[in-house]
Design brief:
alpha+beta, two-stranded antiparallel ribbon, two-stranded antiparallel sheet, 8 strands
Length: 150
């Protein structure tokens, strides 16, 4: 590492991070600064690993071939619509063509079915980390969790 680097001192990064928040800025309620930063970092990892920001392998079967495309979670509904013709507005009962699945699903529930049954899509609460199978369930919990702290 050259001396021209912004972080020539190896302790500089940790110092910068821990100096941002001090006991005087936020009441830690029985937590040490190190514990607080660990929990903060853990929550950032949980958010970054949320299903919207992860790659998922599509296993939808067209004809006899499984798709196998790696799709970013937030793009999965678009992929299913554009690549496989799955329309969320379709109210007819359809067979799920995910590799190995034998279930029949109302078209409007196909994406939630795929999320929950096939790619184990879970939404983590931004406050406590508790996981939920649906985003609206997480959001309801988060609003209560944020207000009550539990």
């Amino acid at each position: 590492m050259s001396n021209n680097s912004a972080y020539a001192n190896s302790d500089r990064f940790n110092q910068d991070f821990t100096d941002e928040v001090s006991n005087s800025d936020i009441p830690l309620v029985g937590l040490t600064t190190a514990t607080y930063h660990f929990q903060d970092a853990f929550m950032l990892v949980k958010i970054a690993a949320s299903p919207e920001h992860r790659l998922h392998t599509c296993q939808w079967v067209d004809n006899t071939t499984s798709c196998r495309h790696e799709v970013l979670g937030q793009n999965f509904p678009t992929h299913l619509r554009d690549r496989h013709g799955i329309m969320n507005a379709d109210g007819r009962v359809q067979k799920c063509r995910w590799d190995g699945c034998r279930e029949y699903v109302i078209g409007t529930n196909m994406f939630p079915h795929i999320q929950q049954k096939h790619i184990a899509w879970m939404y983590a609460c931004f406050n406590c980390g508790m996981e939920f199978p649906r985003q609206n369930m997480r959001n309801i919990h988060f609003n209560q969790c944020r207000e009550t702290g539990t």
